[in-house]
Every structure is written in structure tokens, then in C-alpha cells.
Design goal:
eight-stranded mixed β-sheet; alpha/beta; two-stranded antiparallel sheet; about 300 residues; globular; Rossmann fold
Length: about 300
């Protein structure tokens, strides 16, 4: 996995927006063929996105965490059931989406997802959000129940951290770039086993390749968000997934958020941290696929 790729159409650097010549983002797929990913301009931001699976299938939307791009889900997608129309996107300030000036609001991040789903004509999606992606999912479900029929809240909460903690991280990134917080972030993100593996370097590289402005902008959005009251009003199928060694959103915090919604389900993945879709993709895909079948989405 690499986050600097040179294509015949254009050169995409991590955090860069769509190619100025084509209006699209060029990336290499796992099959070594060039994959041209479309983009959507929303005025103040241009979102990079990718669709996989059955174009007529049941819609499944993935929103990734702070400091990652849409490739966060690469290991999970091949393990999911057939018959799904899968949408992934880079939130503003991340991956190949454009980078508006910080700070961002959670309302803007929710509005980006809402506009993308509307643009593609999707309804009744199952929205899978990890960390800040799960916060976006909560906000979208509250705002647009016509868009969201079920939620998967992975390693997330109605409120994450405190304003003081997020301001400290913002200040550190402003002073020294994302590199200044990279090692501490890896310790929160991954299990002890994974921290000792050679794969760690790949995910550290993904983190530090993200634009500092995007990291700061999304950190400000998290700092200003408290969804306890709106999320407690949701009435829809909900699966919460936690990693037993998650140092960012511990299992009890994820479970507490799930308990706000009556009838919700909770699953714990052992020997995994904040990104269980990376450390334990088979188990993650099994929980997700079983949930999709139980709610009749596939």
C-alpha cells in the first residue's frame, strides 16, 4: 500500500485534490491497473470517492477515521457478501479530497456525506463509520433518516475526548506537523501485537501523509461535538464494534454510545485496537455481514 502514486493522467500526492487536467483522481488498484476515481465539487470542498461492487446492489457507505483515507477498508471489502453497492470517500482535508482552511464543523462533515449520497441517488444506506466517521454517521442519521436505514458505529462515541485534549493535539500539529503526534497516535490506534509488526510502518505513513490542515480541521470538529442527546433519539438498527485494546475509544465508551439506541448490538474484537478493520479484517467483515443479513439489507 502506498500513498504516493504517479500516473499517466496526473500525479497525486497524499492530500492533493483531483487532477487539474481530468477532474478525477488517479490511483493504482491492487490489480496494478489504474483506477480513476470520481470527485464531487461542493463549492468549498471537492470530495474524492470510490464505488465498488454491484451498481444495483444494496448501498453500504464507509466513512473512515481521523488521519486515514478510504484505503482503510481495503482488507475488509473482499470479505463482504455479494450484492452490495459499496461507497467509500475521503472526508474533507484527507486523502485525495481538497483541503479547506481549518477549523471544520461536524455539521460541514455531515453535510459532505449527505451531499455525496444525494449526488449518487442513494437511499436507505447502511452507514459504517469508524471514529470521526461514526460521529458523521450519527449526525447524518439524525438529520436524514431517508438516507440512513441502519448504522454501524465502529470505535466511536457520541463524544470523543475533551476540548482540552483536542486543543493540545491541534497545537502540536500546528507546531511540528503530524509527525509530532505520530508515535503517540500509533500507540492509541493499535494492539500490542500490531505495534511490534512490520505492518505498522504502512499505517504510520498513511497518518503522516495526511494534510496537517485537514487533521487540525477535523480535530476541531470532534472537539466541538456532543451527540449524546440527538443519538439517544435514534430508532434504527445499530451495530457497535469495539477493539479490546483501543486506546482512543475504549470498549466501555463504545458500549455506552450503543446503549443510547434501544435494541442496539455490541461486538468486541479481541487483540485489536482502534482500527480493527486493519488488524482483524476477517472478524470485522463477519460481524458486518451477519448484521446486514439480520436486518434484511442483503
Amino acid at each position: 500500500m502506498c500513498w504516493r502514486k504517479t500516473m499517466s493522467a496526473c500525479h497525486i500526492d497524499a492530500g492533493a485534490g483531483p487532477c487539474a487536467r481530468t477532474g478525477q483522481t488517479a490511483l493504482s488498484g491492487n490489480d496494478e491497473k489504474d483506477v480513476i476515481m470520481p470527485s464531487l465539487s461542493l463549492g468549498d470542498v471537492t470530495l474524492n470517492y470510490r464505488e465498488d461492487g454491484d451498481p444495483k446492489g444494496a448501498p453500504l457507505v464507509f466513512a473512515n477515521s481521523l488521519g486515514t483515507d478510504l484505503h482503510l477498508w481495503d482488507a475488509v471489502l473482499p470479505l463482504l457478501p455479494a450484492g452490495l453497492r459499496i461507497l467509500r470517500y475521503d472526508k474533507r482535508g484527507h486523502g485525495a479530497s481538497s483541503v479547506p482552511p481549518a477549523p471544520y464543523t461536524m455539521g460541514a462533515l455531515v453535510g459532505d456525506a449527505e451531499a455525496l449520497i444525494d449526488h449518487l441517488g442513494l437511499r436507505d444506506v447502511v452507514f459504517v463509520g469508524l471514529s470521526i466517521g461514526g460521529m458523521i454517521g450519527q449526525g447524518l442519521a439524525v438529520k436524514r433518516l431517508d438516507q440512513v436505514r441502519a448504522l454501524v458505529l465502529s470505535n466511536t462515541a457520541a463524544r470523543i475526548g475533551t476540548r482540552e485534549i483536542w486543543q493540545q493535539r491541534i497545537d502540536a500539529v500546528r507546531a511540528g506537523g503530524i509527525e509530532a503526534i505520530a508515535d503517540a497516535t500509533m500507540a492509541r490506534w493499535f494492539s500490542r501485537d500490531f505495534l511490534a509488526s512490520p505492518e505498522l510502518a504502512t499505517w504510520r505513513a498513511m497518518l503522516v501523509s495526511q494534510p496537517a490542515e485537514g487533521y487540525v480541521g477535523c480535530s476541531a470538529a470532534i472537539a466541538g461535538t456532543d451527540f449524546y442527546t440527538p443519538t439517544s433519539g435514534l430508532r434504527l438498527p445499530l451495530l457497535a464494534i469495539a477493539g479490546a485494546e483501543d486506546g482512543a475509544t475504549p470498549p466501555d465508551l463504545v458500549r455506552e454510545t450503543a446503549s443510547l439506541v434501544p435494541g442496539s448490538e455490541f461486538r468486541l474484537i479481541r487483540r485489536a485496537g482502534h482500527l480493527p478493520c486493519v488488524e482483524k479484517p476477517d472478524e470485522y467483515a463477519r460481524f458486518l455481514g451477519d448484521f446486514l443479513r439480520r436486518i434484511g439489507h442483503i
